[in-house]
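Morning!

As promised:
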Amino acid sequence: EPEVTQTPSHQVTQMGQEVILRCVPISNHLYFYWYRQILGQKVEFLVSFYNNEISEKSEIFDDQFSVERPDGSNFTLKIRSTKLEDSAMYFCASSGPSAPLFFGEGSRLTVL
Amino acid sequence: QKEVEQDPGPLSVPEGAIVSLNCTYSNSAFQYFMWYRQYSRKGPELLMYTYSSGNKEDGRFTAQVDKSSKYISLFIRDSQPSDSATYLCAMSLIPNTGNQFYFGTGTSLTVIP
């Protein structure tokens, strides 16, 4: 069964460092998303991406965040200068024609 | 006012019970409704999705949408200990346009053997 895969599963970084989280969406999907979930809190929308452009972004997705689809399979989230409050689970998701949202297992980011 | 409201629980039921999980929403333009199950420190797993008002059944799970009341429900029959998880409702406007999906806070369910 097709699935969304994410790497790394866990990353520990120092405050101020850059982090790149990687995702391989389901192959025939066209819409890509990043969500995050701070421990014990709700799943929060960050950004959606379609046709190599951002479709929608939340107020959380400020200038320190960026997304990219560098090739035909990967979808990345970059955090330029991490802050303590960026510590969370980051979920990549994708959807396609007549398909709901499918999530990856997440990348846990710990900022020290 | 939050887009999607969901009672966080926790909800604790004996094995074999019928579980009812609910969400209300404020935006009448929502058209696409989903339920996800999330185990601790794992990604949300899609359980059910539907476009329309009414009931949709899949095994022990039934999703119900009442657009006139802006209310959706998930029923779990013959609940099992393996159903213990957090259940998230989600909804969106026109699907497959890159619009965000709006999530409830999740309801924590424990099924006691």
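Chain A has one domain: 5-101.

Hope this helps with the figure draft.
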